[in-house]
Specification:
This protein is of the alpha+beta class. It has 14 helices and 14 strands. It has a five-stranded mixed β-sheet. It has a four-stranded antiparallel β-sheet with strand order 1-2-3-4, with no helix packed on it. The chain has a three-stranded antiparallel β-sheet with strand order 12-13-14. Strand 2 and strand 3 form a beta hairpin. This is Copia protein.
Amino acid sequence: MLISGDPHNACYNSAKKLLREKFNFKHWTHIDEREKLDFCGCSFVKTSFGYQLGHPDYFSKIKPITIDPKRRDFAMATQNEVSALRAVLGALQWPSTQTAPQLGATVSLLSGQITAATTEDLRDANKALKFSKVNNDVGLQFRPLGQISNMVLVAMSDASWGIRREGHSQGGYLLMLAPKEILDGETTNYTILDWRSFRLPRVSRSSLNAESQACAAAMDSLEYTRTLIQGCLNADYTLQSPGEWVISKTALVVDAKALYDSIRAEVPQLSGDKRTKIEVMIVKEKMQECQTLLRWVSSEAQYADGMTKPSARQLLTDRLRTHMFKLQADEDFVAAKKKTQQQREANARKFALSKAASKVGTKARGLHLAKHNKSVQCEIEYEEMSHMSYQLHLEQEDKARLEDSFKREIETLESYAQVMKDTSDTNKEDADTFLSEPKTLKVRLQDVEQTLTAKIQEVIELERQVYQVQDSLDRANQANANMRELHDHEIEFRREVYAINKANRFHLFDDCSILMQARPVTMYVCKECEERRAKENAEMNQYQHGWR
């Protein structure tokens, strides 16, 4: 439990005293804004933009599974390896339900394969652990959003049809709190309140059925959270008479056009799938009760996509680094498959920030300062290289310190120039030149800004090239492994053919009709093997001729 309030307020102190008397907590820890609170591997820290909750040091304590690199992916895991897999997934499940939504899909899918785990599952678990350690800086951010009465709840749902090994589908959703301006298409911050990645309870006949099941689960979470907030802020709240809702508006975001049309239709036209029709009717009823607006976005802009498949977890992680979102409806309903690769990438990476770029971005302070609420926003756009928009928040004190330092330098230069002008008329020309130094300094600062921006673009391009080279190496290693496996199969097959031919030389048959007549097999073999095979075929032909 985490509580906060004014220590000089009588109501706060009274409530704190009642909590101490009611609940027998073992430890009561007081945290100052300048300190960091650690509990069970979870860190709660004050940052420049607000507060962040994460597991930065927790992942380094988890040990990976030891796997023989020569083992094939489809080989079944041993009992000890299954126990190690349970340990790793159990360790990752704790942060996936507390501060790391990007791990939800991976942990859920691998947990469903423990009883029939293979070497491939063990390697996937190690990859997930490595991914967690690399992105340990990402957590839940709590930024100042304004008054609660000016907030809206936004639920984003998605599903991956038949992605599980046994044929089931995976569903997922994200529930976030954001200012009302998000419904008008403005870029805002948000706070994630709830998320889930889970196996859908029923086997889906179509992707629409899977999407409807995930959407129904998202609406359940939205309704419950809205009711919980109402009960916390209104002591007289009851289900029969809730009163005036604190959060009056909500929104549901989907990327399935068929689901969007079915919900908007007065009567869903789904005669071929009555179960899906029931799910859609449930969603429509919940939306009416919660005054929920329906929005459609293209699949590359769907944040909940990272809750349904491991391949989208890196994009969701990069998006969580900025905690920025823009809900802009597409009136033309252009699907992702109808867009170019550059358009999809630009839209997907709009509010995504990689770890390497975030480290480079911290050095870009003061490039473009613009007032945004109570903080200074530094926006860097890379249109040609990576088509991404990075928005980095700096404190107001940083801007004031830069302005004061620059102002003091100008005042010093002006005072020196004035002294020179008063000293002698002969130095007037030098004094005028000296007075122009502030303008020259501004020009130099602009040149430095342009140079720094170019360097950042070079770093981003190098990062992309490294990823491409690594991907090529992985594909080459996989191809080599496949070639080695085919070579092993070829040797085994040659041995079986040789054994059959050898056995046929010394066994007599009562009926010559059952005599095996082996056909030659075309293979690429060495010269020695070819000579040996020719000798064996000659002996076999001589033996068959003598039998006849």
